[in-house]
């Protein structure tokens, strides 16, 4: 049974002041088995982020079905799930990492990562220990751990964002350009975490403009323009699946 099965997905956006509706994506179909990693490729503006945000239910799909195999709810259509179900899934099962940090104000970096675990019911002592491990792994300067992240650089915010999402070890992790402003050393830290998450059974869907980063990580690649899923091969070559 697939962890995620996207069928005939489509999304439109309405520009009200222009009285114009634009089709962002349509006829998107792919599925992913538990523990696998699909990379979505395509030009900027082709709708890659729209697909991820709809799976996370930041957007409501206009057409199609987004089946997700939930540990709590069984096979559930994310497009029609209730708000209560979506909140539960975001807290316990589905993680999302983007280039941008959107966090609660007046919480330090350490508190934000701890909170991600505390809301799952992890004890305070373990949450603190795991938060410190995550911040150390992503090489966030210890001086910043008890600082509000509004003062952080773009790279520091991104590393914090990744730490908050991955520390929960979600069943499904959505990655929207998570290495966009990272240096090569920080990218390797992200690779390490992705490999560990995959080894522990996490299913991943990600967008990366850095194709070299995806090599050796992705099991399959979905070309959003061609609307085809390809099996990833060693050295970056692909063939149609």
TrEMBL record:
Start and end residues of each ABC transporter domain: 4-241
Record's keyword terms, sorted: ATP-binding, Nucleotide-binding
Gene Ontology terms, MF aspect: ATP binding
One Pfam family it belongs to: ABC_tran
Family: Belongs to the ABC transporter superfamily.
NCBIfam families named among the record's database cross-references: CP_lyasePhnL
Protein name per the record: ATP-binding cassette domain-containing protein
Organism for this UniProt entry: Lentibacillus halophilus
